[in-house]
Amino acid sequence: MATMPDETAVFGEPKYWQLRTSLLKAIDEDFNSGDILPNERDLAARFGVARATLRHALEQLELEGRLVRKRGAGTTVAGPRVDVSLGADGEGWPGVDLRDREVIDCATVPVTEEFADTLKGRPSALVHRLRRRQFSMRQVVGLECLYVSRAVVPSLSTRVPNFERASLMLRQLRGHRLEGRHRAVELAVAEAEEARYLERPPGTAVLVVTTTYTALGRTAAVTVATYRADTCRLAFAEAGPTALRPAS
Question: Which residues form the HTH gntR-type domain (predicted)?
C-alpha cells in the first residue's frame, strides 16, 4: 500500500487531503470493490498520521462514494457508480416493473404548493402519490416521488396493499398515450426526510431529476427522483443537436 507523499510536494494542502489522495491511490492499486480496508490503527501507523486525520480522510472518501463505512462491519471499497439513464428514447411513462424498487406508500394526498400549478389543481386539490426507493447491489441509491393527476387516473383503491395499488396506478397511467415528456436535472442537498429514506445524513449531495409527463392535452404526472450523488451518475443517450434554453 502507498504511503504519504513528501509534504513539500503538496505544500498548502490540509494534511487530511494529502492522506485522502494517498488512500485513493492505494484503493485504485491494491483493492477491488467490496474489499475491506485494514483497521484504523493499522492504517494510521502505515501512513504515519493521527487517527483523527485518518478519520477525516476516510469520511471525505465516503462522501465521494469511494468507501462504505458501517459500524461493526469495517470500511469497504465501494462498487462502481450506478448509471441513471436519461436517454431521449427511454421508456416514456414511469416503469411498472417494481423488482428493484421498494414501495414506501401509494396514496391520495393533497397536492403540494410546488406542483399545484403544474398539475392544474388548487393547493387543496388531491393527487395520487407513489413513493418508492430504488436499490442496486442491495444498497439504496434513489428515492422517487410520482404525482399523478386524478383527471388521468380518477380513482385509487385503498382496499389493496401498497405494492398492488402502485402497480395498478402505473398500469392505468401507461394506458394513456404519452404526448410529451420534459426532464430537468439539478444538484441539491437531501432534506431530513429524503436523507432518512436514502440512508444518508441530512445535507448530503443529491442529484434531482424532475420529469413532467403530458397526456390528454394536460400535465398528467410529475416524477421527482432524488439520487445519491455519491453512488450514481447520469447517463445520457446519444441524440441529435439539442437547443439549450435557460432554466425557468
Answer: 13-80
Supply the pTM of this predicted model.
Answer: 0.73
Region class of 51: left (phi > 0), else alpha (psi between -120 and 50), else beta: alpha
Give the containing element (helix H, strand E) for 54: helix 51-63
Fold of the CATH domain 7-77: Arc Repressor Mutant, subunit A (1.10.10)
d(CA 15, CA 12): 9
Q: Who has greater pLDDT, 240 or 228?
A: 228
Q: Which CATH number fits domain 82-235: 3.40.50.2300, 3.40.1410.10, 1.10.357.140, 3.40.1190.10?
A: 3.40.1410.10
149 close to 219: Cβ distance less than 8 angstroms: yes
SS3 60: helix
State the chain's mean pLDDT as an integer: 82
